[in-house]
Amino acid sequence: MRKIAWLSPLLLMAILLVASSPAAAHSPLFPVENHSIDTAMAIDDPAKSIAIYHELESEEAAYYELQMKAGERIFLQTLIPVSPQQGFIPGLALLLPGVGSNGTLPSFVEVPSGYHTLVAPGDANAEGELEPFTPGPIFILAEIDVVAPVDGTYYGVVFSNDQGGNYAIAIGYLEAFTAEEILSLPVDLLTIYQWEGQALWQALLPYVLVFAIGLLLAYYGHRRMGKPDTWVKWLAVISSLAFLGSTASVLFQLAFSFTRVPVSSTMVLSLLFALAYLIMGLVVGRFAFQRKELSLRVRIVFVAIAIIGLSMWGGFYIGPILALVVAFAPPYRGKK
Question: Do the domain assignments include residue 95?
């Protein structure tokens, strides 16, 4: 028991990370085609905090449909992954039903009859910051935060200038993840990294390197010392490497982000995630190279790691799933 007692505060830290993460992150979405009023992307719950990652060509607009009741809060925010000094400075507008004042919009933006507009031009001097959960670089350009004056259909609009690029629009203010959204996060993160400008191979490189090096070392250990010595231990090796890959990925993404935005205190949260992945990976990996039974207490630890790993979208879900498989594997003893 003493050998795993030191895990208690570290696992507690991981649980606290899980509890805090939905309170500060947006659920990601990726629309396909919404460049006209008729094809506007319908937002099911305008209060729920989501981030929609998309792109615009030059002189193009994207539309988001919001069904609102009078008195409800409308929150919209636009951001991009590169400095606006590179020329792409999308603007943000809210189309409201009824009569009112109008902001200045480009001629290519559609405004339905009977609507007026609220416009927030993009800030050409916006400073970048680190989004710690991806982690990734963001530049917040514009924000609209108002109360709906009447019941009806509203439209959030993001429009480009004479230069296109990638943008994200954040909609809503109540942060929460569904189970489906949590389960899709590892793949969504790869898409977000590509939205930031990385190639797919770059986003996957930390995992590939960790698996390649780790499996070679494990094979060397098996050949020289006979460890790992069972199929269960080999599953633990793969689980461990998946968690360690998440640690490497977080560190790689931090390094990428700091080529675009300044170092800030928000990196602490990213590093805590990386540390939690590292701890889980090392605990699982240590078991893989021990000649010990899969005792009840170790099974309990593995179940806890699986639950925490899934909740923290760690190990590309390969790590948590295989940790759970190991936890319920048949009893066995290692070689003497």
Answer: yes
Q: Is 332 a domain residue?
A: no
One domain for residues 36 and 169 = yes
Phi-psi region of 172 (alpha: psi -120 to 50; beta: other; left: phi over 0): left
Cα separation, 63 vs 120, in Å, equals 15
| Pure H helices in the chain | 2-5, 7-20, 179-195, 200-225, 231-257, 267-288, 296-311, 318-327
Q: What is the CA radius of gyration of the chain?
A: 24
pLDDT tens column, 51-104: 999 999 999 999 999 999 999 999 999 999 999 999 999 999 999 999 888 888
Strand partners, 137: 130
Q: Which long-range contacts (CB under 8 A, 24 or more apart) does 223-232 make?
A: 226/335, 227/288, 227/289, 227/290, 227/291, 227/334, 228/288, 228/289, 229/291, 229/334, 229/335, 230/332, 230/334, 232/294, 232/326, 232/329, 232/332
Residues facing residue 138 across a β-bridge: 129
Q: 174: helix, coil or strand?
A: strand
Q: How far apart (Å, rounded) are the C-alpha atoms in residues 71 and 53?
A: 28
- Does the residue 336 lie in any domain? no
Q: At what angle do helices 296-311 and 7-20 cross, to 10 degrees?
A: 30
Query: Which 8-state DSSP code applies to residue 136?
Result: E
Instruction: Give the span between the Cα atoms of 305 and 307, in whole angstroms.
Output: 6
Range of the domain at 185: 2-22+180-327
